[in-house]
Design goal:
Blueprint: H1 3-7, H2 11-15, H3 20-23, H4 43-52, E1 57-58, H5 59-66, H6 70-83, E2 89-94, E3 97-102, H7 107-114, H8 123-135, E4 138-139, H9 140-147, H10 152-160, E5 164-169, E6 177-181, H11 183-188, H12 202-224
Antiparallel strand pairs: 1-3, 2-3, 4-6, 5-6
Helix pairs in contact: 4-6, 5-6, 8-10, 9-12
């Protein structure tokens, strides 16, 4: 073929439509960071992504990474949770964040492998942790009002073990720190969400509420004064 013939477009080339990049103008909206087509992401791909993640991922992050809408991500996470129900890995959900964790049933075997049964919590730590779990987000003031003793050390201990985490500050005078349970708490106690917590006895629930109401009243009085 001569050089002239090579430069002349064929009839097939002329019949081809222009690329989508040429015909579709930019909308100005932020495009997903992933180049994968949304329909190429399934439960298996989502499981792999969560498996390699070194931290909990938010549903919004997953939507951005995969190119899916957030409602599609929620549906896929629901399918993944069902698929993992009887396996050694579970899907743990805490609000907007999700993470893969080991099944509580495999805890003894894993502890044998790593050579540790885990650090046991003291009665004081368990007491404070229960208050945080059922009342979260909660201030140290509420915890101390319920326990009747200073709880700074025990809270720092629980935070060191990542059973309790800081979750912002209360919109009250002094802006006290709000505490909540972390992923380590749910993994250690075999929970897939906070909805799995057993219901509190009526008197215990009333005590938690009374302590929170009392602290709120004191803060309002301080603000008025």
């Amino acid at each position: 073929m001569s050089q002239v013939e090579e430069t002349v477009p064929s009839a097939r080339d002329e019949a081809l439509p222009p690329t989508s990049q040429e015909t579709v103008p930019s909308t100005g909206e932020d495009a997903p960071s992933s180049e994968l087509a949304p329909d190429s992401i399934g439960v298996a791909e989502l499981e792999a992504l969560l498996f390699v993640a070194e931290r909990p991922l938010s549903r919004r992050e997953l939507a951005t990474l995969t190119g899916h809408r957030q409602e599609d991500i929620n549906a896929l996470l629901g399918d993944l949770e069902v698929a993992l129900h009887d396996r050694g890995i579970r899907l743990l959900s805490s609000g907007e964040r999700v993470q893969l964790v080991t099944s509580p049933a495999a805890g003894a075997l894993i502890a044998r492998y790593v050579g540790s049964d885990g650090v046991r919590l003291s009665a004081a730590a368990l007491e404070a942790l229960a208050i945080v779990a059922y009342r979260q987000p909660v201030t140290r003031g509420v915890i101390e009002r319920i326990r009747g003793v200073d709880s700074d050390y025990v809270l720092r201990s629980l935070m060191h073990r990542r059973l309790v985490v800081e979750q912002g500050r209360a919109d009250t005078p002094g802006r006290p720190i709000l505490y909540a349970t972390g992923f380590e708490f749910m993994e250690r106690f075999g929970l897939t969400s906070l909805d799995d917590l057993p219901p509190l006895a009526t008197d215990a629930a009333a005590g938690l509420q009374a302590a929170a109401d009392a602290e709120a009243s004191e803060m309002e009085a301080d603000a008025d004064g």
